[in-house]
Amino acid sequence: MRKILLIMMIIGLLLGLTGCWGRKDIQGQVYVTAVGIDYTEDEFTVYLQALNFGNIAKQEGASSIKAVPNTIAKAKGKTIQSAISKVERKSAYPLFFGHVETIILSENALKEQLKSVIEYIGQDHFLRYNSNFFGTKQSMKDILNSESFFNYSSLFTVLHNPEELTHSNYILPVQKYNKFISTYYEPVGSYIVPEIMINDTHFTEGKDKKKIAAIMGGFVISNQQYKGYVPKEDLTGVKWTANEAVRIPLTLFDEKASVMITKPRKSVNVLEGTRPAYELIVKGKAQLIQNEESLSIDEIEKELNKKVKRQIRKTLEKGGELQADLLNISEPAYRYYLNTWSLHEIQSFDLSSVEKIKVDIMIEKSVNYKR
């Protein structure tokens, strides 16, 4: 009797277990990996980049495999959701947004419809806050069709994997969407949305030019407003104050000397006075990797610190033109000195607010030649 009861209990438990009857085969869905949003003539245009499993990069022998083009969907609508719904109705397979890891906005969308984009992303439970966040002036379709090396998947590009680029050659802080949201509502400072563009001038495979996505500048958002576009050459001061750079190469003396700066760190001292003023300090260590004219270490260090200071000042000047604190120098005053100055006084940041810039980067060693 006990055995019969035990068998009946086991059967009952097995019947209560969920099976795989509702599962979907991997080839039965379209896996969206990037979403691009444009806004023109009172309409949203949404672009969806879909992952093609036939083009996932194989680590060995990938160069001998013919590249499979990305699948790009496009639709227009009065709202973002209406545009996406049009794609879903026409798709051969259901769309799955759980693998989206990159969001790209056109300059028009950043200028005119940023609040609508923020609201939509906040409501869609599939679009994650840890997605990469970019802006662009170029054709969204061209950006989403950017190529990788050796016929690898587009997952191996700066569009989907910016950490590799920023770790080895820091340009701008390429941060996740959640960092943007956390600073968007702040009354001071700025967020720079990295501009992504197609570069077809530096790389070829055979006789064909490679269309590689690259970071070429940034779109400035401050106090919930679009402030303007800044090219990369005017943002050179950002890398010295972002505290995220690991390695920064720098050439000196008309490219006759080169150094590699590792982990520069900034600090900001808030100075006492009738209005907010600041002392910006940048420290770091460098390695001398090229010295064609056998210049002294002291001479190279002096020129290095002067060049870093010039780059910081150039970015401050550009921020003054846009009325934006591009280096987020005013943040400590807002955090700790609201009893000393009003918010309006702290927000009135300009080039004259930075009274002192100190740069102290020391060359620790030089590269030894192989024997």
Task: Describe the protein.
This protein is α/β, with parallel strands linked by helices. The protein has 2 domains: about 25-235, no CATH class; about 235-370, 2-Layer Sandwich (GMP Synthetase, Chain A, domain 3), CATH 3.30.300. The protein has 11 helices and 15 strands. The chain has helices spanning about 1-15, 80-90, 105-110, 115-125, 140-145, 160-170, 175-185, 240, 295-320, 330-335, 345; strands at about 30-40, 45-50, 70-75, 95, 100-105, 130-135, 190-200, 205, 210, 210-220, 225-230, 245-250, 255-270, 275-290, 355-365. Strands 1, 2, 3, 4, 5 and 6 form a 6-stranded mixed β-sheet that branches. A 4-stranded mixed β-sheet has the order 12-13-14-15. β10 (about 210-220) and β11 form a beta hairpin. The longest helix is centred in the last third of the chain and has 26 residues, at about 295-320. It is globular, with a radius of gyration of 26 Å. The mean pLDDT is about 85.
